[in-house]
Specification:
By secondary structure, this protein is an all-alpha fold. It folds into three domains: about 1-35 and about 240-435, no CATH class; about 40-230, no CATH class; about 445-500. It has helices at about 5-35, 40-70, 80-110, 120-130, 135-150, 155-160, 160-180, 185-210, 225-240, 245-260, 260-300, 300-330, 330-340, 345-360, 360-375, 380-405, 410-435, 440-465, 470-495. Helix 3 (about 80-110) runs antiparallel to helix 4 (about 120-130), helix 3 (about 80-110) packs antiparallel against helix 5 (about 135-150) and helix 11 runs parallel beside helix 15 (about 360-375).
Length: about 500
């Protein structure tokens, strides 16, 4: 993809993602108000994380990472009937797998509740019987979004999560307001909103899917060559994309052993970190994957490396200042967004401590997503798996080592360290695979961004202190505006000419 086309597509995805992430932040603000950091919400989050984990592995991660490179070969007008057949067979396989898995988990969770277990485990299993069916809806939605992304349409897939945010918020407002339910009742109402939100994400993406000549008609032909090739790619991809969800599940399980509310504090901190990850890191990787896949299929390694380098530089330009902002303004941010209702100042302190350490690995999380997509574009699904399996072991060890002295902060720090290890290992192995990546240039530009980000943070801090008499919200907005202006000015004066993409040889 040409540089201008890449930036245009990235801009569309970024604007849509900003809207979605703002809505997601409103969702978390609503949850914080009605649940705070309580045992019941800890139990719901653990029950929700299981289908969310499977979604990341089976749908958005595994299926799409195997689907897009194969489906991209069927995009010519003369191959449209074959492309529809590939889509239909993939939909059929997805429905069969997710429905069977959901029913199995529902039955197992229902039976396990009758054994001697703790109250927290009973709540988790009670909620899980219903949350697991979110997997069916979101898997279909992810497949439809994968087709649209392959066709160069990014708007509808980027906006689809608004469906979940809307029904999540609506269910809580109704549960606590109109019906005045307690914590457990609110949770069951929230589960209803979760399932409706999953269906809504599919509904939002379908019109664009239909306009491009495709239909949601499931079929199942295991002899379809494209399905066979996806199956061969899928197993190693599943292991590779499972790494982050497995690490998160381990993190939250260990956090639940510390004290009530630790799972919730990690969740809220992670939601704030996910804002720049989604707006910048995932958006860049989403736009880059089809382009990288096409260039890899054409064997054009110079342009592939040029696209990858440009994507990495853009990633650092956007993510590094966001990370510093979260580190230095974590408690004012949490106080403005979450501290109300059942979310107290104690919840703010616990969440801020986790956010401090999560933010340290932000550059590595987003960079790792991009490098993993580059391996998938090269049809290499094995290398990310090997790196990922190593990270699972390292993550468990660091969690156990650091959670004692640092509690939830130790778990967040372990995540940041593992993310950094993953990034540098993937970069080293990709360099060995396709040759020099001009890493020194990328590093110099990243250090330049770190310098001007530090200047912007100082300006933002002075604005925060100068405007503190205006209250938490207005002082934070003043800090953001001052920091953004300082960053833009410093970038223009110090880095603008140097940060332009160097012409390829």
């Amino acid at each position: 993809m040409l540089k201008k086309g890449f930036i245009r597509a990235f801009g569309v995805v970024t604007l849509a993602t900003i809207l979605v992430r703002v809505a997601g932040l409103a969702r978390e603000m609503t949850s914080a108000n009605y649940f705070g950091t309580t045992l019941v919400y800890d139990a719901f989050l653990l029950a929700f994380m299981i289908p969310n984990f499977l979604r990341g592995v089976l749908a958005e991660g595994g299926l799409n990472s195997a689907f897009i490179p194969v489906f991209s070969e069927y995009l010519g007008p003369e191959r449209r009937p074959e492309a529809q057949k590939v889509v239909s067979d993939t939909i059929g396989a997805s429905l069969l797998a997710t429905l069977a898995l959901s029913v199995l988990v529902m039955l197992a969770a229902g039976a396990a509740r009758f054994f001697p277990i703790s109250h927290k485990a009973f709540l988790i299993l009670s909620f899980l019987r219903f949350t697991i069916f979110y997997l069916v809806f979101i898997s279909l939605a992810a497949l439809v979004m994968g087709v649209l992304n392959s066709l160069g349409h990014f708007t509808a897939p980027a906006l689809a999560p608004l469906g979940l945010d809307f029904f999540w918020i609506l269910s809580l407002v109704l549960a606590a307001g109109r019906f005045n339910l307690g914590l457990t009742g609110r949770t069951y109402c929230l589960i209803g909103g979760l399932l409706l939100g999953g269906a809504a994400q599919l509904a939002i993406a379908l019109p664009a899917f239909h306009r491009r000549g495709f239909r949601l008609r499931p079929s199942l032909d295991f002899r379809n060559p494209a399905l066979v090739r996806m199956g061969r790619l899928l197993l190693p991809v599943l292991v590779g994309v499972a790494v982050t969800p497995i690490n998160l599940m381990v993190d939250y399980f260990l956090a639940s052993l510390i004290s009530p509310g630790m799972v919730s504090s990690l969740w809220y901190a992670n939601r704030l970190v996910q804002l720049p990850i989604g707006v910048f890191g995932v958006a860049i990787a989403t736009v880059a994957l089809p382009s990288l896949s096409r260039l890899a299929a054409e064997g054009d390694l110079p342009k592939l490396k040029q696209t990858l380098n440009f994507s990495m530089q853009l990633n650092f330009l956007l993510v590094i200042p966001a990370a510093l902002g979260l580190v230095f303004f974590r408690e004012p941010i949490i106080r403005v967004f979450f501290e109300r209702g059942l979310f107290t100042s104690r919840s703010t302190a616990a969440t801020g401590f986790a956010l401090l350490f999560y933010s340290m690995g932000l550059f590595a999380y987003t960079g790792g997503i991009l490098l993993t997509r580059a391996f998938y574009a090269l049809r290499d699904t094995v290398t990310p798996v090997r790196v990922g399996l190593l990270s699972i072991l390292v993550n468990v060890g660091l969690d156990l080592l650091l959670m004692g002295p640092l509690r939830q902060g130790g778990i967040a720090l372990a995540t940041a360290l593992v993310g950094t290890l993953n990034f540098f290992l993937l970069y080293h192995l990709l360099r060995r695979r396709i040759g020099p990546l001009d890493g020194k240039l990328v590093l110099r530009k990243a250090l330049g961004v770190l310098l001007i980000s530090g200047l912007a943070v100082l300006a933002a801090w002075r604005c925060l202190r100068a405007a503190r008499h205006l209250g938490p919200l207005l002082s934070l907005l003043a800090a953001f505006a001052g920091g953004l202006a300082a960053y833009a000015a410093a970038y223009w004066l110090l880095l603008h000419r140097r940060y332009r993409e160097r012409p390829s040889a």
